[in-house]
Amino acid sequence: MSADVEVAIVGAGQAGLATSWYLTQAGIEHVVLEASRVAETWRTRRWDSFCLVTPNWTVTLPGGEYRGPDPDGFLGRDALVDHFQRWSDSFHAPVRENCPVSALDGDGDEFVLEVPGGKLRAKRVVVASGGYQRAHLPANASDIPTNITQLLAEDYRNPDAIPPGGVLIVGSGQTGCQIAEELHETGRRVVLACGRAPWAPRRIGGKDVVWWVIESGFWNRTVADLPSPAARLISNVLATGHGGGHDMHHRTLHAKGVELAGHFAGAEDRRVHFADDLAQTVQASDNLAGTFRKWCVALAEKRNLDLGWEMPPPLEIKGRTELDLASEGFETVIWTTGYRPDYAWVRFPVFDEMGFPIQQDGRSRVPGLYFMGVHFQRKQQSAVLHGTREDAELVARHIVENRR
Ligand SMILES: Cc1cc2nc3c(=O)[nH]c(=O)nc-3n(C[C@H](O)[C@H](O)[C@H](O)COP(=O)(O)OP(=O)(O)OC[C@H]3O[C@@H](n4cnc5c(N)ncnc54)[C@H](O)[C@@H]3O)c2cc1C
Question: What is the arithmetic mean of pLDDT over 290-317?
């Protein structure tokens, strides 16, 4: 049986579209199968006031580079979606929208994809179904009573769309901190159950923190450079692009009046428990910040730059260990506790114990099966806008050079 298409790419986010762009340049017949619409994740899994944390100049997508008037700004959600749509249209990316792939199997040396209305056979497949796929909840999340409104971060839209009263946010990565800041600024009482996360000033030595992240090589770290494979799950460096960009981390939120607490430890009825570990968590975050700072110091020395970033003294802070949602008027819990991979529909044994694809430069051990956009695929930057280009070029080049 002959294949219907030479290459099938699954997913029309930046990872799939960048691969499509390179294959288009090389004249390789392909299709991009997209469960919903181009850039769907940015359209529907981000809140209304969402804007990039990375400056616009980091949008270095092939053929889709940011060329607007504000390279140092931070595109809002809708402008980013427009950018993606224009990019996809510009090279007539062969996207088949509303086409979820429910299973990927092999048949001889070909692949069979289950799509609405039947099966599609392809010689090669690039799985680009998202760097941040399935929201992860703490084990005891189900302790929260069902009469409390509970939202995943991707379902949060704006302060008016949740019940009045206080809000408990569980998870203090980039998303949790940004939502905490937004809700606090609209007058909500917010308790933030914290986990550790690296932080840095938004501007270091007169340059944006992301410039330092890139130029120092921090984002070039591979899984092998981390203390353990599980360290892939630690948040990116905390900062925000809101209002033109500013510092945002445990200390800034504490100073504004957001109430910090230790890790979420479970609940009985409407009484939520937190670990008595806030000071240690903030210290662990400072240690992660200190690790990043060392990369900045090395770069500053090499290029003779002024860093101007001294670590502050420890934040001596004791968090509460209990919150009575009922008596304190808290009606909403927002879970912002990270993501895990979810490739249940890919029926090949090519995943590690954490569920991440086992691959080298995007190539799995199954000939012709590739991955794109995986967190730490090649480097830490693989699943962000800035890192997409070089990974997609490598995957596309391998496909082109190994045509059969
Ligand atoms: C809250 C948040 C904020 C972020 N902010 C930034 C930022 O400021 N700067 C930055 O550089 N990065 C940021 N990122 C990281 C990254 O850029 C985004 O996660 C980005 O969406 C990843 O692109 P992707 O193409 O890998 O995946 P996605 O954009 O998720 O695209 C995957 C596509 O695959 C489709 N799909 C999934 N499964 C199937 C299937 N079985 N069949 C068909 N289609 C399927 C989905 O519908 C989706 O359209 C952020 C991530 C998160 C979670």
Answer: 96
Give the mean model confidence (pLDDT) for residues 2-19. 96
- State the DSSP code for 27: T
Alpha-carbon gap, residue 62 to 24, rounded angstroms: 11
17 lines ligand 1 (CB under 6 A): no
Query: Residue 25: which of 383, 329, 400 has the closest Cα?
Result: 400
Q: From atom 14 of ligand 1, which residue's Cα is the shortest distance away?
A: 384
1: pLDDT strictly greater than 70: no
pLDDT in tens, 355-379: 999 999 999 999 999 999 999 999 9
Residue with tokens 């800034």: 252
Residue 177 in contact with ligand 1 by CB distance below 6 A: no
Mean pLDDT of 302-328: 95
Question: How large is the average pLDDT for residues 325-346?
Answer: 96
Contacts of residue 112, defined as CB under 8 A and 6 or more positions apart, other chains included, come to: 104, 105, 106, 119, 120, 121
Percentage of the chain exceeding pLDDT 90:
97
**Cβ–Cβ under 8 Å, residues 70 and 206:** no
**Residue to substitute in 155, 337, 385, 390 for testing ligand 1 pocket (most ligand atoms within 8 angstroms of CB):** 385
DSSP for 240-292, written as a single string: B-GGG-B--SHHHHHHHTPEEE--EEEEETTEEEE-S-HHHHHHHHHHHHHHH
Considering the chain, what is the average pLDDT of its residues?
Answer: 96
Rounded to the nearest whole angstrom, what is the distance from the C-alpha of residue 22 to the centroid of ligand 1?
19
Question: Please, are residues 98 and 115 in contact by the beta-carbon 8 Å criterion?
Answer: no
